[in-house]
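Reviewers of the previous submission asked for a worked example of the structure-prediction workflow described in the proposal, so we include one complete record here. The input consisted solely of the amino acid sequence. No template or homolog information was supplied to the procedure at any stage.
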Amino acid sequence: MSALWSRALELLGRLRLPLGVRKKLRVGHPGAPDAQGGRGWRRYLSAERLYDVWGPVAESVWLPFHCVPLFAALDQLTESEVGPAVPPQEAVSGVAPPPPSPLPSHARPGAPAPAWITPESWVFLDLPGPRAVEAGAWLVTAAGCQPVCTFDNWPHPDGVLRAEEILAELLRWATTVADARPRLTATSPPLWICDSRRLGMRSGKPGEFDNRYYLDDSILPGPALLKRAGVGRVVYLTLDNPDPPVLDLEGYFAELLTADIPVLHVDLGAADPEPRSLAAPVSPQRPPRSGFHRSAAGGFGTEVPEPSSSGG
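From that input alone, the workflow returned the following structure tokens.
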């Protein structure tokens, strides 16, 4: 057991995990195959094993930034209700397949590594949850990046964000990523895998579980650490985002640019994606902080209480 995972379990073991009515939460489909077409995904039904396969190598400086909550939730779910995401255009009894992946062919697992991922690059993948995981599998297997997952929230049947969709996708690609891990080292380019929908489109309503979140200093390394680790530039990847970056990164990227760490933007939706300099905003907006609900177990996610009523 890794030291980081051991500390996480020690903390979580003292707290009541915020999953609410756990039996109501279905993750993927237990009858679905993984991306390799088999049932190897079942080896990763353990929270620790899934956490390890989707994290940096054990001796990596990036290990403390790998988020625990979504993985820890796996051990609290009913195993018969958990499985990988249904692969596009696959027939699974009782489940309609989703539409084909919106990822372009050059950004899916099996595509060659892009030339713009260099040894000094910090790759920041910021796509809608499940697609971020799929593109992450591409960059781990093709470019030899070591993954760091930033999913800092808890799944819940009444969640504002459907975090279980990400968990199902992590299971779907676990065996594929596992096969690539022997080639990873502590100096492999770091890959932050982020859900671009993390801020949500609205706040939670009474009775809902508000698991929206933002990326804070516990997930975003400072310029000094990046330079000590040999990072010479940030490559920020989005998919058809007309106004990058996501709001919680605006001030952070401005800080990196001030520290002479270039930030390059790549739109994976482009026919021929190439990095372009991301200019610092004239007046960076302050990252959102109010209205988000931290969990006592770490990460984000709490039930929104019903409004109190008083008579008199």
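Residues 3-88+95-293 form one domain. We consider this example representative of the routine output the project will generate in years two and three.
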